[in-house]
Each structure stands twice: as structure tokens, then as C-alpha cells.
Specification:
334 residues, alpha/beta, five-stranded parallel sheet, 16 helices, elongated
Length: 334
């Protein structure tokens, strides 16, 4: 999906200004790394920058969107624009060889050539070395763009030859406003905005009944821990274990539990703090009155430890029973 310059300026104002100045001052480099998490707009900004670089009639550092070049990029068949994606776990040597073959051909269009390596952290040593010589000595005017969520995962020989452009995470408040504007409740928007920073993912999650059920079950267990260990164990066996069977489901559930205890910490420090579960605000305030920061810290650590145990394939029932005991040891609720 193409985004307008105005939309992208709202999404990533610093990055967009940076790229527009590069273009305006005619300081386009030979290689860039665009680093940003999911939902930060790296793909969309990359397409905007490519359109700007190849546009036949840019206006005020914005692609015209109507010239032959812009139209061909939109349709995905511009001969001077090439993209490489991972196949499986890595970007294979064959994919790089195919790219270099395409880049060495005489372009049907005069001027700059652009190639984009998606998920660049998946370049293995062989494919990276294959690309390295062309990166250092390209044929003609060429701009390389590497897209990644983690620049440190890109091998140093590539990293050192590129300009780094860092994308900012989307503010949680902004995401919540967009979700609420589309009819999502404030409480659900507050929760899902802690789970993902990608707006499209967020809409997908809130439409999934399984997520609503997961949220409900986690909060039921958290409230049970305020009472006694027997009540908590009952919820674990009757509600938690039958619902959360896969590792990914348990990871999410433990994260949702962690957010609940973080809410209590935040409310104890500041009664006006933004919560992951604003619909439980009165419950969190009551809990905060009857505990200490030290005990809350122990409870948070207990949940984090359970998450580590999950990764080591500990028996899930035993892990949850141990977690309930650890949460009770850290509690002082009355």
C-alpha cells in the first residue's frame, strides 16, 4: 500500500525530513540501512524514497506520483528497481547472484538504479560477501537500501559501508487514538497497544475472540492471586491450562500477566498513570494500597523467571504451580 508524503511525515517526521534534505541537497549516498521495528513504516518510507530518487518530475522533495517512473514503481515493474527477500531463514547466494545479474544489465531507463535487501540481517556470510564487491564498486549510479529490525545483526562489512537511518517507535498514545477512532474500546486499545506497535497487527488482534478470552483469563488469575494460593491454583487448572496449550500462547499470557503487575506498580507510584488494563483501575488501586514495591518487584521477577523456564521446556503445569507459589510468597494483599 502506497502512503502519501503527508501520512509518512506524521508517522516518521525525523526520518522523512532527513531523507528529503538528502535529496534536496543532492547528497544521495550509495548505501543506507533503514532500521525500525514492525509497524514503524520502514517499508513504506523505503518505497517513498525510491519513488523520489527515480521520479522524473519531483516537486518540493516529493515524488509526482504521475510520471512513467512513479507509475512503474507502483505497478512493480520498474527496470531500475530491484528487491531481494529471504527464502526461508536466509537470503541465499542465488538470490544475490540473480540481483547482480539484473543490475549489470543495461537498464531500459537511464539514470539511477536502486536495489533493496529486505530483512538484511538474514544475509549469511556467503551472500554478503557476494554482494560486498558490488556495494563497494557499483556499475553506474546505484543506491542500495538494507531494511532491518536490528542493525547489529547485519554483518560488520555491510554495516560499515552504509548510512544508518533509525526509525522511531510509534507512540502508544497515537496508536490508541487510532484504535479508539475505529470503534475499539479504550480498555482493549490500551491492552493491545502493549502487545504490538503495528497498527494493522493491532486491528487483527482485537478482532480475534481468542485474544479477548486470553485477556479475561489472565485477569481472572491475577485477581485470584490477590486472595489465596488455593484460589489461584483452581483458576490455573480450570481456566489457564485448558486455554493456553502452545508455547506462543503461554508467552503471550505471561506477558499479559506481567503487564497487570506493572499496572499496580505504576498506580502505586502515580494514581494517574496510564494502565494496560484501565477497566481494572479500581482493582489495581486497592491492590497497590496493600502491598510494597519490594513485594511487587519480587512478583514481577517471578513472572519473568517463569517465562525463562518456558523457553527451557519446563513442564507447563509445574511451571504455573511454582509461579503461583512464588507470587504468594511475594504478596501482602489482605
Amino acid at each position: 500500500m502506497m502512503h502519501t508524503a503527508e501520512e509518512l511525515l506524521k508517522l516518521q517526521p525525523v526520518v522523512m525530513k532527513q531523507l528529503q534534505i538528502i535529496f534536496e541537497k543532492n547528497r544521495v549516498g550509495h548505501a543506507y540501512i533503514l532500521e525500525g521495528g514492525k509497524g514503524t513504516g520502514t517499508e513504506e518510507v523505503m518505497l517513498y524514497f525510491v519513488r523520489l530518487l527515480l521520479c522524473e518530475n519531483p516537486q518540493n522533495d516529493v515524488p509526482c506520483e504521475t510520471c512513467r517512473s512513479c507509475q512503474r514503481i507502483k505497478s512493480g515493474n520498474h527496470p531500475n528497481f530491484h528487491q531481494v527477500y529471504p527464502e526461508g531463514q536466509f537470503i541465499k547466494v542465488d538470490a544475490i547472484e540473480k540481483l547482480l545479474n539484473e543490475m549489470s544489465k543495461t537498464g531500459l531507463e537511464a539514470g539511477r538504479k536502486v536495489y533493496v535487501i529486505h530483512s538484511a540481517e538474514r544475509l549469511n556470510v556467503k551472500s554478503a560477501n557476494k554482494l560486498l564487491k558490488f556495494l563497494e564498486e557499483p556499475e553506474g549510479v546505484v543506491t542500495a537500501i538494507f531494511i532491518t529490525q536490528n542493525i547489529n545483526a547485519i554483518i560488520p562489512t555491510i554495516r560499515s559501508r552504509c548510512q544508518h537511518i533509525k526509525f522511531q517507535e510509534i507512540p502508544r498514545n497515537s496508536m490508541m487514538k487510532e484504535l479508539v477512532a475505529e470503534g475499539i474500546t479504550q480498555s482493549m486499545a490500551a491492552t493491545v497497544s502493549m502487545v504490538t506497535s503495528d497498527l494493522e497487527d493491532a486491528f487483527s488482534i482485537v478482532k480475534d475472540d481468542a485474544f479477548a478470552q486470553a485477556r479475561k483469563t489472565v485477569l481472572k488469575l491475577v485477581e485470584a492471586t490477590f486472595k489465596n494460593v488455593h484460589e489461584a491454583m483452581l483458576v490455573v487448572h480450570e481456566d489457564w491450562l485448558p486455554l493456553f496449550k502452545e508455547k506462543e500462547q503461554i508467552e503471550l499470557a505471561l506477558d499479559l500477566m506481567l503487564f497487570a503487575f506493572r499496572d499496580i506498580v505504576a498506580i502505586k507510584a502515580n494514581p494517574e498513570a496510564m494502565c494496560t488494563y484501565p477497566d481494572l483501575l479500581s482493582t489495581w488501586k486497592e491492590a497497590a494500597l496493600h502491598t510494597t514495591f519490594d513485594k511487587l518487584s519480587s512478583q514481577l521477577q517471578a513472572i519473568l523467571n517463569a517465562r525463562k523456564q518456558l523457553q527451557s521446556n519446563m513442564n507447563k503445569t509445574l511451571m504455573m504451580e511454582q509461579l503461583m507459589l512464588n507470587l504468594q510468597e511475594g504478596r501482602s494483599f489482605v
